[in-house]
Amino acid sequence: MHEINSTEWEKMLLKYKFAKTMLEAELKVLLEEHEFRTGNTPVEHIKTRLKSETSILKKLEDKGYEKTVENVEKYIHDIVGFRIVCSFLSDVYDIVNIIKSSKNFKIKNENDYIKNPKDTGYSSYHLNILIPIHLEQKLEYVEAEIQIRTVAMDFWASLDHKLQYKLPQDIPVYLERELLSCSNEIKLMDLKMQHLYDIVKKYTDKK
Predict the structure, then answer these.
(1) Is 119 strand, coil or helix?
(2) Whose CA, among 64, 120, 127, 150, lies 20 to 30 Å from 113?
(3) What is the C-alpha radius of gyration for the chain, rounded to an integer number of angstroms?
(4) Residue 109: is it exposed, middle or buried by C-beta count within 10 angstroms (0-12/13-18/19+)?
């Protein structure tokens, strides 16, 4: 295998760019159809990004792999990244089901870090999907990662990410405990807000 030349980079990144565009359009249709059918808008906001060449190469290097197209496609799963932020826990699972209902892409794998949080306290629902792309009269499936979480989870993850950059490599144990404690408090807040939301829905459903 040889390292990626500029032409190969352009072709590879074009596939991921097409995948991002297709996923944006498909999600827009799915969510608008859901809103029309149920009257509910589960999404607060969506953030999208295409990983830069520098970030891709650094990730390969950190993982100890050669800088080849094959290794990018095999080992880097989040070049196309979507973060869907919603208000309530039930919205997270509604969105998961909405995405799974699409026949325009395949689910590669999924991880429910809400029911099974990471040791750090990180909570989110991850879906890795395969998007069909036609390039040079050839069908290929391009991977994208979708993270679905509540506003509270997103708040914690954002602050945790900023703190991790400022902390030394070996995080003091008491800080790990504090971060985990904050995560648990946010989880309780999500549960309380869900409870209040369920009560409000009972009243509005009676009308």
Answers:
(1) coil
(2) 64
(3) 19
(4) exposed
- Give pLDDT tens digits for 20-67: 999 999 999 999 999 999 888 899 999 999 999 889 988 999 899 998
Cβ count near 68 (within 10 Å): 15
CATH number of 6-156: 3.30.460.10
Classify residue 26 by burial, with Cβ atoms within 10 Å: 0-12, 13-18, 19+. Answer: middle
Residue at token pair 């945790």: 160
Alpha-carbon span 123 to 112, nearest angstrom: 8
8 Å CB contact between 68 and 3:
yes
Angle ∠(109,113,118) on CA atoms, nearest 5: 115
Separation of alpha carbons 187 and 167, rounded Å: 24
- Overall pTM surpassing 0.85 (yes/no): yes
Residues 142-152 have pLDDT tens digits of: 999 999 999 99
12: nearest Cα among 56, 47, 48, 65: 56
The C-alpha atoms of residue 43 and residue 35 are separated, in whole angstroms, by: 10
Type of residue at 183: S
Torsion, Cα 74 113 79 44, to 10 degrees, reads: 160
Per the structure block, which two tokens stand in for 109?
């794998």
Q: What is the mean pLDDT of the chain?
A: 89
In contact, 97 and 127? CB cutoff 8 Å:
no
- Tokens encoding 78: 């989040």
